[in-house]
Amino acid sequence: MAKSFNENNLNERKEFFISTIAKFCDKCGNPYSRDDLEIIQDTNLSTIIHFSCSNCKSNNIATYIKPMGISNRMPINTDLEVEEISKFALMKKTSPEEILDIYLYLKEKDKVTV
């Protein structure tokens, strides 16, 4: 279940994640600010945070596991916006049957236009 935050609480949480997970960009060393963070998902067990460097534009996603107080951060190369990441994070996983259906559908096409 996702939680909503008031502005003050949100800023405090962002400061906590900066001091706990990443104070500086791994790529260029620029210090992170609250504006560089977006909380993508927050549950009773974990929080998923998106870090975006305002200097070099590199992106990282971090997962903070609350009961253990540990985090894992990884760089991502994506053209997805934070809102899109949030949207897809809440979706159920794609089944192998759905993937096969799409594969068979596309296999019959000469051309695919988006």
Automatic annotation (TrEMBL):
Full protein name: Uncharacterized protein
Domain of life: Bacteria
Lineage, uppermost ranks: Bacteria, Candidatus Dojkabacteria
